[in-house]
Amino acid sequence: MIEEGGGPRGCPASREEPREEKPREEKPREEPPVAHSRTLRFWLDPANIAVRLGQAGPVTRTKAGPAVAFQVNDPSLIRKVGCGEDIFQAWSADPCLRDFTGNGFAGSEGQPHRDRRALMKPALAAPRLTPLGPAVRDSAEGLLAGLPADRPVDIPVEMSRIVAGLVIETVLKSSISPDTLAALARARSVLSAGVFWTYALSPWPWVPTPRGRAFRRALGTLNEATREVYEGHQPDADGNDVVSLLKRSSDNRPDAALHDLRALLFAGIEATASTLAWACYELGRHPDHQAAIRAEADAVLGADAPADAVRPDLMPRTTGFVREVTRLHGIPFLVRRPRHATNVGEHPVPAGALVTLPLGALRRDPARYARPEEFDPLRWSPEAHPQLSPAALLPYGLGPRYCPGAAASEILTPVALASLVRSRTLRTTPPGRTVRVSLELTPMPKGLTMLATSREPHPPAPGPAHGEQADPALRP
């Protein structure tokens, strides 16, 4: 086994051998570059041994001070740990997060957790959500109208605002005030980072959580937004939408439904906002892909398009772009803790140790993906050979903690992205600024500001993406 040192909670960083300093030649680089923190580098840096799964053992033990962690590299073991709820506890059920999860499904375990998910499942199932496409398009157009076109915008904040509005209007069937929506978008990053650090520092409760007061204020903002959603809810005609089901199951006790509603709202914003923010980053780097998605959006999202035509499966270029963004920028790892001493494969793991499942490494495995560090949405094209399986990305986790809103996200994300590209032209600003990966529950492009100007009347014709050859469509 390979033992490395690293960041908080035993998150290791790659070890570099000392070497003699040599003059470096200045080389042109793509703008803006992405810089990974030392903690996240272990999962995201393509030179790290975690990405080269063939060189690491099935389980890698790591240590940082008193903290010990075990990274599971074998895909079959990853699924076994991720699905083994009786042996491994998910991070959201940790008692240290009780103030955040409350009594909702996110913080519960076992049968109570399964019962709450089963209650919501009919309302969040794909057959019921498939017709959401036109509603997402119309809602996105209204939300995009509030996106400034004359000055640089903070992309993570604006994507959080747009996604929050879409989730509330189309999935939760409600509305909130513009001021609360804007406050919620600003609070998302503080909430996400606060939960991350609360969990990371849970073995040392005497250590103050960074920005603790800001986190409590942000949680108050989330609570206020949840109450507005609850009170402004407009049920579907059949009364079987998700908020109606939560209300009925709570026997008119608002607090019981509010905890579940808060979890759904935060989770719905968190992952999708990250995906759209990174999509904006890649669109700024690849104007040819931006033009191709726009052409596809014009054909599918036009006002004269039939309602049943506003579907992601009719937008292969857009859905492929989203999948490639997820592959390179999706959540890098899942975490579990064994409830008691156990074995992962042949490796003994003590109770309470951190067990990490490096999804980011699987998505960059050269045995699975040709040119794994290259951003190539066309590898997901229907014409590409061999065909890649989107399920291999594990975009919504696995096992009993599989994201309950996966079907909604599968519709919302590509339609929202296509709507954005159809109405705006995205350019990164200022040139040369480094974009960093934030330490949050889901990676965000920290420091990404862009111009989202009104659509150009004559966008550039689609062509090979930067760094690609003339005909990459047939490459996996």
Helix content: 40-55%
Order of helices and strands: EHEEHEHHHHEHHHHHHHEEEEHHEEEE
Number of helices: 15
State the separation between the terminal residues, measured CA to CA: 32 Å
| Widest beta sheet: strand line-up | 2-3-9-6-4
Largest sheet: 5 strands, mixed
- What portion of residues belong to β-strands? 5-15%
Radius of gyration: 22 Å
Mean of all residue-level pLDDT scores: 82
Envelope shape: globular
Based on DSSP secondary structure assignment, what is the total number of beta strands?
A: 13
Q: Look at the helices and sheets and give the structural class.
A: alpha+beta
pLDDT < 50 runs, ≥5 residues: 1-32, 34-51, 458-476
Descriptive overview:
43% of the residues lie in helices and 11% in strands. With 476 residues, it is α+β, with helices and mostly antiparallel strands. The chain has helices at 38-44, 75-83, 98-101, 110-124, 126-129, 133-144, 155-171, 178-200, 212-231, 242-249, 254-285, 287-301, 316-329, 359-363, 406-423, and strands at residues 34-35, 59-64, 67-72, 88-90, 153-154, 334-338, 342-344, 347-349, 354-357, 424-428, 435-437, 445-446, 449-454. It has a five-stranded mixed beta sheet, covered by helices on one side. A three-stranded mixed beta sheet has the order 1-11-12. It has a three-stranded antiparallel beta sheet with strand order 5-13-10. It is globular. Mean pLDDT is 82; it is low at 1-32, 34-51 and 458-476.
Care to give the gist of this entry?
This protein has 476 residues and is an alpha+beta fold.
Structural features:
globular; 476 residues; 15 helices; alpha+beta; disordered N terminus; 3-stranded mixed β-sheet; disordered C terminus; 5-stranded mixed β-sheet
